[in-house]
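Form 7-S
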Amino acid sequence: MIVRLLGLMIAGAVAYLMLRGWPGWLPDLLRACLAVLALVLALGWWTSGKQSAKHDLPTAQAARKPGWLDFLSIGLGLLVVECAFLWILSAAPEPLEQFAITMEEQFRPEAAERRAKLATGTQVSGNWLWQEEGRRVLPNRTDLKPGPKPEVFVRLVNAEDAEEMLKRQVYVRSFAMSRFEKGVWSGDEGDVKTLRADGDGWIRIGDSSEQEILHEVFVGKGDKGRDVFTALQGARAVRLPSLRVVSEGISYLPEVGEVDGYEYLASSVSLRLSDLPVSARAAEMSDFTAVDGRIERLGQRIAGEGALLDKLRRIEAYLKENYVYSLRTENKQDLDPMENFLFEEKRGHCEFFATAAALMAKGLGAEVRVAYGWAGGQFFDANNTFVFRARDAHAWVEVKAENNVWIVMDPTPPIAFGGNEKPNLADAGETLPDLDEIFEDEESAFGSDRGNLPQVALILTATFGVAMFVVFLLRTKLPEAMAGATAVSIEGRRDAGYISAWRRAFKKRSASSSQGTTLRCQIRELESAPMFADELLEYHYAVRYEQRLPDRKVERELERQIRLWEETRE
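Output:
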């Protein structure tokens, strides 16, 4: 029993390691299937030696005790069902969804048109930030599933900068938009200009400062042909031949031909509302686009009295403390996204928090914009590098302070970053991802078997199905002694062991030949019942009808007593 228990524990540990990703060269799906198989076989081995209590309730008994081939076939059967179900889940939704859309367009055209306007699709990558070039539509409902694919690498040139950066959240900004109209964020319409590098190869885009952090950016090319300038928030300079500025918050990188991505130096000074001194002031707009009256009134109530920066800090804190962060929003009443977020559902992802804060700030006269990029990330100390993945995609508010400096106002609750408002540190021994992972599609970032999941699931279903059929044939063809070490059929037990010994002895001790009667009836026919009769009856009927497992020691003792009883007659 102890050996079987240890085996079960070892199998559980192996299954756990497989589900955690070991060995790494196996596809995720195959590892999961093997983990299930290991647990089933271990459970089968463990139960094969488990003795039933003597006084268990009577239940129907199988013709024979199950052996290892039985449990192997059951395990393979479970894997067949598991893989087939996975294939259905991975292959069926798209055609079924298309069929439903077709039916809706045919019989409910108005609903189909409304759904098309409201649908946002399932998001899987940080690229959702750049939904449309120059525009960002605030979704009515969401079901975001960002993945682990690396999207931006930021290497600090000076290692000493890391100590200060690791004390708080790190933001990498890709673009920012300041116009919000009918649920759509867009950039300011201004004069497009091209900035050229100076004699040292630098483009200065902000006032120089001793606090600037010099860093190297690695980012892949987008699929829309125009790539936005990306750097640590508060960029002041970049080492590029040119930069095309289309609005104050959006700049395009120069064309670089057929390469897969960009690599350049930049310097930044990232400031937050809490960094500004009490005497600092936020820039105020003399005229600005009016926001929804209900949102403006809510912002004024939350902001209270005092300086504009103090009011913005109160709005930031209020949204963090009173609204729920969630990647899924339902908006069952098809309300305006902001109305649903602020007054109805009161939950959403970072873009809802940033939009709400920006609109409230606009209502107070502050000059703000919503910035899109990444936040948090993972820091690899050995390489002095931050890695930002698709799941780190983020949106926040930038407030314009005096001297035309844009500072961070982030109203999203810390739970969005796992409850920690600091970057995550890579574990000891964890290696920096390969830069080439930036250029992989999102599917390949999950593992080698996820890009063609339906095909892999179908192949595994067929493979495990064939294996199950082979094991089933072996189970029926092989002798029962090979199918299970303790497998003994009822029919076999009638002609072997203590029963065989009893039948021989009964034939000699009794004048009648009641071979077809029960053991109890045979004992009653005897003139004098043997001393072991009660023990024999109790054990025999417990094994035959009360699901007690055979005990070889008891059977050998009964067989010995029966033979002695038979010999005394002779």
